What does this fold into?
Amino acid sequence: PGALYKNGASFGAAALSAVYDGPSDQLSVKVKRLALEETTFTAQAALTNVSSKEIALKADGQFSEMPVATLKAFWPRGLGEGGRKWVTENIDDGRWTATQLRANAPLSEFADDTAPADALEIRFELTDAVAHYRRPMPPLIGGAASARMTLDNMRFDIASGVIGGVDVAGSTVVLNSFR
It folds into this structure.
């Protein structure tokens, strides 16, 4: 965890299974439960070409509801770094719900930042948000949104919220150029 987390990370509980298939050179991993403070992560993943330098990842995962503070603490460095940086600097409060994560690319492409934009996709709902679109603008208060993040951008479709006394429900915010 030290390479992924600046100050390390503490997980509450874990239940996983892994199966390696020699003839296909594939490692299948099922994360039945990984407890991270107030949330739980589940996933299924396959690593192919594991005995070579061309290891590829294909994964689907889900998070239970979590406070933004938990997300900030457990979002690994280097994974969707542009989105991670924007979220940690600009979303002050709220809850992530219905979070789904998909990854599909060779690990080397993630490491050297050459993976296609959609090699990582995170879809989530955000509720009770306090967020800054552009500082020093006033923050969004009481925000609720559906969002989609890739390696290149993030899109928020705002269902409710107020910025400086103005109701911004129905607005869309797109943040580009994460890499």
Summary: The longest strand covers residues 91-106.
